Amino acid sequence: MNQLCHFCGNKNFKEAVVQYVYRRGEQFLIVNGVPCEQCEYCGEQYFSGEILIRIEDEFNQIHQQGKKAEKLVMVPMEQFADLRNGMQAGSVGRG
Asked: Least CB-packed of 9, 11, 42, 71 within 10 Å?
């Protein structure tokens, strides 16, 4: 990759295999083992168009054509405004 990271400006990348979460509205597809180029400094991930098209096609097969997914998972969901974890107003992070 002969360009700069769009997030941090770093020019060093490495090949990586990651988990990709595809979302359209309230529907999701989690894909493991996705190849990408990853910024060595900040971790920003870059995917080829071919990879993204394959993921989108799989999403459509599952959510629109009824293909059975390899695995189904339940994921808890909360609204941030409803979280109560003892953070004081104006604080960021934990600690």
From this structure: 71
Q: Which residues contact 10 (CB under 8 A, 6 or more apart)?
A: 4, 39, 40, 41, 42
22-39 residues labelled b (16+ CB within 10 A) or e (exposed): beeeeeebebeebebbbb
Residues of the chain with pLDDT below 70 are 1-2, 86-95
Decide: pTM greater than 0.85: no
d(CA 20, CA 81): 26
- pLDDT (0 to 100) of residue 91: 57
Q: Burial letters for 44-81: b for 16+ Cβ neighbours within 10 Å, e otherwise?
A: beeeeeeeeeebeeebeebbeeeeeeeeeeeeeeeeee
Token pair recorded at residue 15: 């090949």
Q: What is the DSSP letter of 66?
A: -
CA-nearest of 80, 65, 70 to 30 is 70
Tokens of 29: 């597809």
